[in-house]
# Entry
Amino acid sequence: MIKQIDACLERLIATCEEPSLRDAMHYAALGAGKRIRPRLFLAACEAMCGGYDEAALQFACCLEMIHAYSLVHDDLPAMDNDDLRRGRPTVHKQFDEATAILAGDALLSHAFEIMARVCACAESVQQDYAQTMLIIARAAGANGMIAGQVRDLASEGKQLDMDTLEQIHRRKTGALFAAALEAGATLGGNTHTQEMRKLGYTLGLAFQIRDDILDVTSTAEALGKNPGSDINNQKSTYVSLAGLETAQEMYKNISADVLALVDSIPAKTLTLRDLITQVLTRDK
Ligand code: GRG
# Structure
């Protein structure tokens, strides 16, 4: 699945005609990331209808382009100011700040252009392309991931309570996870979409707790990014609020919730379950 996603990303980014911009977009989107969101989308689609087609692959890649843009912008000096991502220099370090801003902008707009083209070229009304696009757009936008980022930046230097922290991560990380699963299920036949959405939000929170744990227990070499970024930026994390041991206990419980949710969905979720298990046991 990852090979198909990367081949499709290559094709979609190759249509950018500006060589220096194309290079930066390629660097940002095709680095050694885990491709979790597009894989969740395709696995959800497959769970509902037994497979996925070229349109599904393109939607999946749009999710990855939106995710890649968020990483590029999040790493900028005006935000988290990180210089290592996916085991190599961040885009603004490898190129320059202006190029990083523009490559992020281009990845985001390219994703919307591709999704709009899939909708416009649809020959059949059987598959709900427009609804699939809407779910992704809503999650990426002002009431989704970006709202999470705004709240995250505003929280720097403040000691948050657990509910506020959860509300931030629900938008910043959870929204795109939930959209990947809900949109995949929508494209795959428009069933069990709300269960998939709930699963996505729960997985997103689990992912974030794991991220906070790895941030204090792992190394830059293993993670491909510098640990301690949240602490350096004076951000609250599950570990800073609850302590490492309690965060680990929370992680165990939420992981069990995630797997129970997958198992409660009456669809062919074998591939999805495998993928979710990989996400829950990740060490980078
Ligand atoms: C709109 C600028 C902007 C930001 C939105 C999503 C986000 C907010 C910022 C991205 C940075 C960040 C630390 C998000 C928290 C979730 C997280 C740990 C993302 C990293 O995702 P992985 O581990 O990354 O899936 P790879 O590199 O594997 O794709």
Q: What stands out?
A: The chain has a mean pLDDT of 94. The two ends are 19 Å apart (CA to CA). Strands lie at 84-85, 88-89.
